[in-house]
């Protein structure tokens, strides 16, 4: 059994700056987006809610 239970961790050399990628505008009506909406949405209202167009004053879903 080894004494001195210090765990060895990799030391980082300096701080690395994360470069943010520029956010590109996504077309929600593209064929790939429409195919995705077809498989994840149950109806038109659900499709709009997934795309960020929810009903005003609607109750929010609680996370699991």
Automatic annotation (TrEMBL):
Residues 1-24 are annotated as: Disordered. It comes from Chelydra serpentina (Snapping turtle). InterPro entries: SMKR1. Residues 1-21 have a biased composition (Basic residues). This is Small lysine rich protein 1.
